[in-house]
């Protein structure tokens, strides 16, 4: 991964464009804050000069100085508060826009990207990385605004008081800048490594927590702990390296600034002894010298945060800039889904070097029930992915209800199907909201009716709050079969023109499965349906059974016809029912 580019820097800064007013206000307030801060040393120096000796203090002269000093303290506090408020609103607003764009980009990305990237790494970019961007930018802006103005302001005051000593300060300062620049230049790569390892660690945690039952079932706790310890140790090493290297800037700049302060003190002391400088002026100058060098310490200290923020920003911008799915704005829509489908010489593979589906031809009439069977990995689910336009064909074409899929909007294609997968998915929300996911405006009577058809009304009513019971994204304490029944109820509520059932009853007990099959039978009347099943007893009544192997159709026909052929299907069927 290369360093952040100028293009990416411009893209990041573009998120602050709507907040230019707040940033300008913060800049003005920073100038006012620094001005109030820089007046204080002059007042202190004047006050020192009014304290001539023991018992000789000009109290009348001190009164107005103390009053002005009190006003400058109040102005400093107020401007600091309002400036920080403006910066926080600007930074958090920009980061909110960045997070919105990142999430919107995630929804626009092709499924191939999601399938080929660790989920935890994507989560890390959307949450941890963006959080670090906000922290780094808020600190960076606050320090840079006040720091730069302080440097130029104190320099101006020092030249006004004594040109010779001010030149000494200017000549020694570049040493601090060169040291800070050298260290910061080499810091980015360490923070880049840190964010990458953090993404891997998030992926592992997400994987382990999401599949904890399997981890325990296979007694894989020790291996997962070892892998976690390995990544955690790697994160520790990269973090220590990044933070240690970036932290060198502070002591280095402090050493140089100490030299500046000492030089000012020595030259100023000789000037006082020669009578060209008062003690009050020396005190004032030493304060300015300290204020002049302090921003260099602060800016060098914030470099670590900024470098970490930029490394995270690069990862987030990479996600935003990933090529989205090809636009389908110019595509048409399916105005009437008649249930017909035709695949002509379809070829597709996830990896172009490893062929999967080749020369696939099928002609489906309206209302037919098509069962697709075959050994694991033969391309059954891949064909369903093509029907839903999760992926587009490499060659050939698929025509749905008279329209070629690649010339039809994806939403229009997907709205034609109702889909129940072997892998269940529930969202955080109530049971009612989960069933109504495909039809949000459904009333409770429709939801209950769909649940009854899916034979899940009984267990739902036994839940603590019935249909208003809150579920987590993994279904909480629901069994795999209960979660699958809720997914079936979701499809039965939406009643789409066509159905795709991919091992839809794999987690359901035999008795309930028979009832569900009856409900599916009623729902499939007049609807074109595609059924993927490993249990061949569930597809014997299909209008056509397609047998796939190695991405090709090897047989097709009714159950009786295929059994009579005594070929691949008969072998599969008999292997399931032989004694």
Task: Outline the secondary-structure elements.
Elements: H1 6-14, H2 20-49, E1 51-53, E2 56-57, H3 59-108, H4 111-116, H5 119-161, H6 163-185, H7 188-210, H8 212-217, H9 221-247, H10 249-274, H11 279-320, E3 341-348, E4 357-364, E5 369-373, H12 380-387, E6 395-400, E7 403-404, H13 410-414, E8 417-420, E9 429-430, H14 431-435, H15 444-453, H16 457-461, E10 470-471, H17 480-494, E11 498-502, H18 510-524, E12 528-532, E13 544-549, E14 552-557, H19 559-565, H20 568-577
Parallel strand pairs: 5-12, 5-13, 8-11, 11-12
Antiparallel strand pairs: 1-2, 3-4, 3-6, 6-7, 9-10, 13-14
What does this structure look like?
This protein is of the alpha/beta class and 579 residues long. It has 2 domains: 6-320, ABC transporter type 1, transmembrane domain (ABC transporter transmembrane region fold); 341-577, P-loop containing nucleotide triphosphate hydrolases (Rossmann fold), CATH 3.40.50. It is 63% helix and 11% strand. The protein has helices at 6-14, 20-49, 59-108, 111-116, 119-161, 163-185, 188-210, 212-217, 221-247, 249-274, 279-320, 380-387, 410-414, 431-435, 444-453, 457-461, 480-494, 510-524, 559-565, 568-577; strands at residues 51-53, 56-57, 341-348, 357-364, 369-373, 395-400, 403-404, 417-420, 429-430, 470-471, 498-502, 528-532, 544-549, 552-557. The strands form 4 sheets. Strands 8-11-12-5-13-14 form a 6-stranded mixed sheet, with helices on both faces. Strands 4-3-6-7 form a 4-stranded antiparallel sheet, covered by helices on one side. It has a two-stranded antiparallel ribbon with strand order 1-2. The two termini are 59 Å apart. The model has no long low-confidence stretch (mean pLDDT 80).
